[in-house]
Design a protein that fits this description.
The chain has eleven helices and 13 strands. With 320 residues, the protein is α/β, with parallel strands linked by helices. It has a nine-stranded parallel sheet with strand order 3-2-1-13-10-9-8-5-4. It has a two-stranded antiparallel sheet with strand order 6-7. Strands 11-12 form a two-stranded parallel sheet.
């Protein structure tokens, strides 16, 4: 029997030496069966996401484009709505709107932007999502919140996708996951960012199967009847084809720093983490099907260095 949630896959990438290479890579991802090309949104060595999204869309026919995820603090929602609606129109309706509350402290420090407490950033992002939806809608829009005030603004152009492009909210904490359950079309489930100081700090203890059980429970509880319409997504940064996944998982667990919350449980904790894919192609395919049954996860994002590894998996599962 066909599963109601169909698998699809995205590639997370943000760099190219020139436009010709960027366009060629976008076409390659399209040909390999990836649904979406997703950019990052940071101030370090990467392409600017809005311009790169537009270029990738122009170079392809079916590939969707988006950002995983736009930091709400970097762009006023009126500006972001106009940019994304424009790309949606020019691409024939191939934009996903990924939005998050921001987490990478060095970006803020280097740009001279205040790095507000998490609760403030989340509140501002919640307002930003509501404004984006309002501006994508028909007619003038008014909004009066704690962080933004919009008066009689009719966001133009209107996006091709109606009532709006899919909204993807990236979240790890309860408050934002519950908000995403009520307002998003796609929820990207992440480990909570703990220190916000560096890419390396991934909060491994919040990347376990048990943590994911809890997060999907929050989503299901807050979504109510709309849960079946949500698409749940996850980034799988560790994808390795191997004939001995247990030994590799033992090695990974043994290399974790004390206190990370996973190593004490041994290789099974590594193998059961939804952010890790180890094994033969058959084993990874079976793992993804099991995780879809358990957590309803069907939209997987891999980094650009895992594209070749994921290709045979995509060939087996895409659209199924």
């Amino acid at each position: 029997m066909a599963h109601p949630r169909k698998f699809r896959f995205a590639v997370h990438t943000s760099s190219a030496p020139d436009g010709k290479t960027w366009a060629a890579e976008a076409r390659r991802y399209e040909d390999l069966g990836f649904s979406t090309l997703l950019l990052r949104d940071h101030f370090d060595d990467q392409l600017a996401p809005i311009a790169a999204m537009a270029a990738a869309a122009a170079a392809t026919e079916t590939l969707r484009v988006g950002c995983l995820v736009f930091d709400n603090d970097y762009r006023h929602p009126v500006v972001l709505a106009k940019e994304l609606a424009t790309i949606d129109v020019l691409s024939g309706g191939r934009v996903d709107v990924g939005i998050g509350a921001g987490w990478m402290a060095p970006d803020y420090e280097q740009a001279g932007m205040p790095f507000d407490p998490p609760g403030t950033r989340v509140s501002r992002m919640i307002e930003g999502v509501r404004i984006l939806k309002g501006l994508f809608g028909d007619g003038p829009f008014d909004f009066a919140g704690e962080h933004y005030t919009i008066t009689g603004h009719d966001g133009l152009p209107k996006p091709t996708q109606r009532p709006h492009p899919p909204i993807m909210i990236g979240a790890g904490g309860e408050r934002l996951l519950r908000f995403g359950a009520r307002e998003a079309d796609i929820i990207g489930i992440n480990p909570v960012k703990r220190s916000n100081e560096a890419w390396a700090d991934q909060n491994v203890g919040d990347a376990t199967a048990e943590a994911t059980d809890r997060k999907v429970g929050w989503i299901r509880d807050s979504a109510g009847p709309r849960f079946d319409d949500l698409e749940l997504s996850i980034v799988a940064p560790f994808v390795v084809i191997t004939d001995d996944r247990v030994s590799l998982a033992e090695s990974i667990a043994g290399g974790l720093e004390p206190g990370e919350g996973v190593e004490a449980a041994g290789p099974e904790a590594v193998l059961s983490s939804p952010y890790v894919l180890l094994g033969t192609v058959d084993e990874i395919v079976e793992t993804l099907e099991e995780r879809r049954d358990r957590w309803q996860l069907s939209y997987y994002v891999c980094n650009d260095d895992s594209v070749e590894t994921m290709t045979p998996v995509i060939e087996r599962l895409n659209g199924k």
